[in-house]
Design brief:
The complex is a heterodimer of chains A (201) and B (256). Chain A is α/β, with parallel strands linked by helices. In chain A, strands 2-1-3-4-5 form a 5-stranded parallel sheet, sandwiched between helices. Helices cover 42% and strands 11% of the residues of chain A. Chain A has 2 domains: 8-119, 3-Layer(aba) Sandwich (Rossmann fold); 126-195, Arc Repressor Mutant, subunit A (Orthogonal Bundle), CATH 1.10.10. Chain A starts with 7 loop residues before the first strand and ends in an 11-residue tail after the last helix. Chain A has helices at residues 16-28, 41-50, 106-117, 129-133, 136-146, 151-158, 162-176, 181-190; strands at residues 8-12, 34-38, 55-59, 83-87, 99-101. Chain B is an all-alpha fold and 256 residues long. Chain B folds into 2 domains: 19-77, no CATH class; 94-253. Chain B contains 9 helices and no strands. The longest helix of chain B is centred in the middle third of the chain and has 45 residues, at 119-163. Chain B is globular. The chains are: A alpha/beta (201), B mainly alpha (256). Chain A binds chain B through residues 52, 75-79, 126-127, 129-130, 176-180, 182-183, 186-187, 189-191, and chain B through 118-120, 123-124, 127-128, 130-131, 134, 188, 191-192, 194-196, 198-199, 202-206, 208.
Chain lengths: 201, 256
């Protein structure tokens, strides 16, 4: 199985105290990330290119002038919902739902951070269309189909009859409109149902 | 002013159809016509005039474009008017068009997308890329099999028919491994291509290199429809003709 990997967080803020504060806060809420600290926009740009970061936390002071929301650049490297911005207030247009303002008290900061970091994967439907398409059982079957097991092997593995396996496979193919095993394997990997290391043949 | 085409779109093209109208009625035929070596600029010339100019067999040309144009078109008596050499030559041209033009074009789009994509999506694009590579191999294998096995068999049939001499080897082949036994259908290839399209349309996380994605999809659709028509020509034009040829060679050999 996959080993537990430290999440990677990029913290971008001009002031040392901000960066320290954010790091401390993360450890208070039980997150011990591998953190990368940067102090200006150029450093931030270069670091997101270099590493695969899971989250970006920025304070608005690293942006020149009032362009506090010119974050489009980073969306290539990090999905929108994995970027948090610390701003003075909510005025101006800001498309980020993860934003912390000066007026936020401890409780709301805590809640916002938790929602930001611990957002369950299943809520993230746009990256995970499979979840809404297939039932849990069908996903189980899909996993083993994608790994190249025969109907008989799948029946034994999942303690179901071959007919049930066939029915599941038929439903999977109909729902996804993907008919080949190779295609199903790609689908399963895209959705992280299986990892490339699992593929046995 | 736009010219209004009132004629029934499904009527087959004839020798007297204007070549320009062939394309107006069905632009899918553009690569097909070019595969015959015909270039644009035909003015008001008819199909037969253009074919004469390029020294092409007009009934064969019509057979091909009509099969592409109308899935239900079924050639009948016309089958006799040209040799299988012509069909094979056409199919070979089509094969090299797929392998040397179409497939590399699609590969280029996939490569372009991998360069433009975000790191998060790169893995998905690589999966798509591997899937397409598998498809390429399978397509190549299928086309090679036709070129190395099926076509030479048909050519020896034509030769036997012309020389009225059927060798024992050929006789055995006709009896035991007739054209019916060859895997002419491209079903598994079509299914794979369909899967690829659905992976892109339905399941690839939204891409910011959207335009390239659109182009890629459009090319996949074009390749798919071209291949479908290609299969139909093999099934409806080539196979019946070869069956007839097999029968005639058998009769002439006097061993029946």
């Amino acid at each position: 199985m996959e080993e537990i990997k430290k999440i990677q967080v990029v913290i971008a803020a001009r002031q040392f105290l901000y960066r320290l504060g954010i790091k401390t806060f993360l450890s208070v809420i039980g997150v011990e990330p591998e953190s990368f600290e940067v102090t200006n926009l150029d450093e931030l740009k270069s670091v997101v290119k270099r590493i695969k970061c899971d989250f970006i936390i920025v304070t608005e002071d690293i942006f020149p002038d009032s362009q506090s929301c010119c974050m489009d650049y980073f969306e290539k490297y990090c999905p929108k919902n994995k970027i948090m911005i610390l701003r003075s207030n909510a005025t101006g247009e800001c498309q980020y739902k993860n934003a912390i303002f000066n007026m936020d008290n401890q409780k709301s900061v805590l809640e916002k951070f938790q929602a930001f970091l611990f957002e369950p994967e299943t809520e993230n439907n746009e990256n995970d269309p499979g979840m809404s398409l297939l039932s849990d059982r069908e996903i189980e079957v899909l996993k083993v189909v994608a790994l190249g097991y025969s109907n008989k092997e799948i029946a034994n593995k999942l303690f179901i009859s071959i007919n049930t396996v066939i029915t599941h496979r038929k439903n999977i193919t109909e729902k996804l409109e993907i008919k080949t095993i190779a295609g199903l394997t790609v689908y399963a990997m895209m959705n992280n149902f299986i990892s490339p290391d699992d593929v046995r043949r | 002013m736009m010219k209004i085409y009132t004629m029934n779109k499904n009527l087959p093209f004839t020798a007297n159809t204007k070549m320009a109208d062939v394309i107006h009625r069905n632009y899918i035929l553009i690569p097909v016509i070019n595969r015959f070596g015909i270039k644009f600029g035909f003015g008001n010339k008819t199909v037969i005039e253009v074919c004469d100019e390029y020294n092409l067999n007009v009934s064969f040309f019509l057979e091909i474009i009509n099969s592409y144009h109308n899935p239900n078109y079924f050639p009948k008596e016309e089958l006799q008017n040209y040799t299988s050499y012509l069909i094979i030559q056409y199919l070979r041209n089509a094969h090299s068009y797929y392998c040397e033009v179409k497939v590399p074009e699609i590969q280029d789009y996939i490569d372009k997308i991998s360069k433009l994509t975000s790191e998060n999506n790169l893995r998905n694009i690589q999966l798509i890329n591997n899937f397409f590579k598998e498809y390429r191999l399978e397509l190549k294998k299928h086309l090679d099999n036709e070129e190395d096995e099926v076509f030479p068999y048909i050519i020896s049939l034509e030769e036997a028919f012309a020389t009225k001499y059927c060798s024992d080897i050929l006789y055995d082949q006709i009896v035991n491994e007739s054209i019916e036994k060859y895997e002419i259908n491209h079903d598994s290839l079509e299914i794979k291509l369909g899967d690829l399209k659905n992976l892109l349309i339905k399941f690839l996380p939204p891409e910011f290199s959207n335009e390239t994605c659109q182009q890629l999809l459009a090319e996949l659709f074009r390749l798919e429809s071209d291949l479908e028509n290609h299969t139909r020509i093999e099934e409806k034009v080539l196979v019946p003709k070869v069956k007839l040829l097999e029968q005639k060679v058998l009769e002439a050999s006097g061993r029946n």
